[in-house]
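Objective 1b of the project was to move from sequence-level analysis to a structural picture of ligand recognition. The entry below was assembled by the postdoctoral researcher (A.K.) and checked by the PI before modelling. It contains the amino acid sequence of the target and the SMILES of the bound compound, S-adenosylmethionine.
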Amino acid sequence: MTDLHDLCRFPTRPITRGTYIPMLTLYLKSGIPATYTVEEAELFEQGIEDPVDLPSTTTPLHILMENVPVPAQSSLEEIETVSAMIDELFQWGAGWCHIDTKERTPACILVERGLKDSVYFTQMVEAGVRAELLLRKVGEHDMEFIDDIEMDFDPEMVEQTESDEAEKKEVNEKEEEEERAELADDPANNQETYLKTKLEYTDNALVTEKNRDGVMMDWESQLMQAGADSMASGTIDEDGSVDLEYVCLNIGFGMGIIDTMVEKHAVKPAKHYICEAHPDVLAKMRADGWFEMPNVVVLSGRWQEALPKLLEEGITFNGIYYDTYSEHYEDMLDLFDFVVGLLKPHGVFSFFNGLGGDRIVSYEVYKKVVELDLNNYGLAVTFTEMDAPKETLVESQQKMAADKAAEGESAWEGIKRAYWVCPVYYHPEAKFA
Ligand SMILES: C[S@@+](CC[C@H](N)C(=O)[O-])C[C@H]1O[C@@H](n2cnc3c(N)ncnc32)[C@H](O)[C@@H]1O
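Corresponding predicted holo structure:
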């Protein structure tokens, strides 16, 4: 435990700006890193410096979030001082997504304490958005950071530090290599691997045969209905006139839930394009007669190959829906390039908004990031809040409140990883601004 950690427990009340901010700045300026963890401090006390492999880390921000008085029982000055402390920690490099021993980010602790609506939670989300955008810029420009400032040290000490650094680097590189190999092998992460992975349709899901990863599950039906409705709403012009030639494009067939809804919708599609890449899903579509339906055009293959052809042919859509598997946010950014070319002026683009859905704070961060990105493409997005189906929340409720018995059967029974834990789903609708 260091003085910095102690301060983050708010040993004295009221929390005054005059006391807390100078103390915090003093500790940070004296060289205690803003990410210095309780675990590191404990090891340091046992004589272990620079531990190489710490699986979880309780940072000053975690301690702060655990101990911050609830805003309803704080004065305005206390709230403002805590906010300023959070800002100060971020300025000195504190992280919004570090994980403590219970796998919680600082914001997760706020959620657990019922403080999701607090200004502190908003600060975590804003920090997350800044970090995501910065990371992207770093990636784009292939920037390198100077991580050592050469100083005039004792040569023996420099030698020792260099050999420690080299050892650390070697361990890190080995770990990164193993991680890369693992990810390349994971169908949920690597599209090439996914497209070669055998799939299985069960009663309520489409899963990878071996790993039991959920590719699509029927608890999403309600969300798909919202998607089908959004696409159909792209037939209505700004002046209220209706486009009778409703043309839509769904990317990712999965269980065919949204495509079935499109076909049964009150607004009938004149042309319904479906793009699907996986051979097992295409076989199911063939068996179920989708290839023979007169208004349906099946685009077999990845959207990355199919969409440029649609652009070339000058086809435009009232509605576009995107819900694939084993793709990443960067793929979605690539898709936006096509969406702006393929959407009619009054058309609607929507997608399965599961981005960051396995952690409430990440979900909020990605909601903001995707909004900013769509805005950059001239698309304005609105989010309709929908209650997430209860069966998806059983496990996360159990995890969060071990004292309260969570009710009902879990949607994740027999599924390897719960990819959704958020109580509210933000259904997106993007239109040209
Ligand atoms: C989550 S499921 C879609 C579920 C669908 N919305 C429904 O209502 O049943 C994702 C689907 O996208 C397909 N897919 C994944 N990557 C793709 C890509 N690059 N191009 C086209 N389809 C892709 C998968 O094979 C899978 O069938």
